[in-house]
Amino acid sequence: MGKIQYYLKNNTRIADEHIGQISRCFRLQHVKKNTLLLSEGETCKDLYFVHRGSIRTYFVTARGQEKTRHIAFENAIITSISSFISQKKSTEFVETLENSELYAINHKDFYQLLSDIPLWEKYYRLFLESTYLCQNQKIENRITLSAKQRYDKLMSEEPIYIQRLSNRILASYLDITQETLSRLKSK
Question: Which residues form the Cyclic nucleotide-binding domain (predicted)?
Fold first, then answer.
């Protein structure tokens, strides 16, 4: 059983026959570290399941600062969600952070599966709800917690971020400067 099939079998109630149909729509990609999968201004055509490695979505401000919106490690799904849904030009970038093994599904196949398989549509709804909650929590943390509190919370709840991300990416994710991050790490 392939990784995408295993993931679907353990994270959905989709029948085996439909899991096979879904997994056939995903194509395996081996992608080198620091590869841009999507640039600002392009339309997002793919949604990715991370088998091995990591991907981030980020924006670049008018001042040229990177602001990381989301990071996905193994067994997670990621895309430029606004562009993928709307099929309009993206305002963000999608980039691999490590050499990665990904399963990609294109927009057309993804939405065809939503029409064909009701439990795939339910899985998608749950994915969207989870994405919303995650992003809402990140905004809430940014507004209500200090840089130290955000760092401490990430370290206690998601230590993988601190273990696997460079200081530049971690600072961008926490929305702090690298200097502030270095001070926090040294305490």
Answer: 21-114
